[in-house]
Amino acid sequence: MLDRIGLAADTVEEEMASVDTLETVVLPQVHSRKLVLETIAGRCLNVECYRGFAPANILSAISQPDVYFQYSNPEGTQRDLSTDKARRAYEYMAIRRNRSQQDLRFFTEVVLNVRNPDVIDVRLQKNGLARITVFLERLSDSPEDPDISRLEGNHRLAYARGTKNLSPVAIPISFCLTVGITKLMEAKLFRDINSNQRPMNTSHLDNIELQLHRDGSEQAKEHTRLADMLANDPKSPFLDLVYRGGRRLIGTRFVISLRTLANLSRLFTLRSEKLGELSFEEQYAVIRSYWGLVSEVFPEEWNDNNNSYLMMKSAGLSALAMLGARLFDDLALLGRLDELKVTLQPLRRTVNWKVKGPLQGLNGLGGATIIYRKHLAPVTENIGGSGNGSLKKQISKLIS
Questions:
Q1: How far apart are the first and last CA of the chain?
Q2: H helices then E strands: how many in the chain?
Q3: Which of 34, 263, 268, 271 has its Cβ near the most Cβ atoms within 10 Å?
Q4: How large is the average pLDDT for residues 352-362?
Q5: Mean of the per-residue pLDDT values for the chain?
Q6: How high is the pLDDT of residue 10?
Q7: What pLDDT shows up at residue 220?
Q8: Among residues of the chain, what percentage have pLDDT more than 70?
Q9: Helix-strand-coil percent breakdown of the chain, rounded to 5?
């Protein structure tokens, strides 16, 4: 960030082929590599902050997004940048000759968090004013742990500093600056700000909820925790197949989002009468074992890289979750959970999951219900007889 200004997200590198130095972007406000911001000091709810106005290109130049990336930056707070949304924000802000003064444009404030207090100096003035000096030579260029991170407004600031083909947006916008908020609490505030807005990647919010849960700050929903375990367990068939939000790695195959997997776990537990009698760990073991058996019975559909089958779509997986709940209840009642895979095997011959097959056009929960009742539920009609053994012993045998 000190000598060249570029976007942290790899998806927009082509936009940043040539940029100006930091001093060129922010002059004349910068003197001796110090940037002075005049602000109002106060509190928003229980967070101390400083509010003010500054050109968009300046705020863009001194800050960076901390983009979540499940491989190299699993504690990141920001979702992946949408280049389309960033360009639309730039076009909205940029000065155009054909715009009249009556064409009012307004943005809510961007929110920046100073993670490293050593890069600024705060001097309180009279009447609640505060003068903040940003020491530019102290700013690091780490894209995964910025000294000043973008808590809210990354899309508005992404192109504001200018690119090879876009002029800097040197017009004022409002900002809010917080100082010293921890990375975890920054993630919590990001979730609180965005949880009720649309569009928003729900898996990204779920992932932040899980980060808070692991720290002990909050309790994640049980079905979200189940999904998280399925996504990370080396024994789970969903390992490395779950999109958790943030940046997407080109060439990586994601078949399901974290939110969808959580909804499947919730559907499984709600539809089963017996699963609720188990501990959380036992419930997870049953659900993981079931999906493992499904992946063994339908290996071609499970590992479909060409979108030739519908099984791994939301409706197909939801229908299978309904079936799993029914089979678990029936077989557990009979003391025959070890026959779960044998019971599933006939579906290999009777269900056609091909894209242009009989399930084409069945979507959503309604489509899942039709798939379950018409194509999957008949396999339960052959369940009968009796067995023995406690439910806990059956589960132990199932997962052994």
A1: 53
A2: 15, 10
A3: 268
A4: 94
A5: 80
A6: 37
A7: 62
A8: 76
A9: 45, 15, 40
Pairwise CA distance, residues 153 & 5, whole Å:
18
pLDDT at 234 over 90: yes
The pTM (predicted TM-score) of the whole model is 0.57
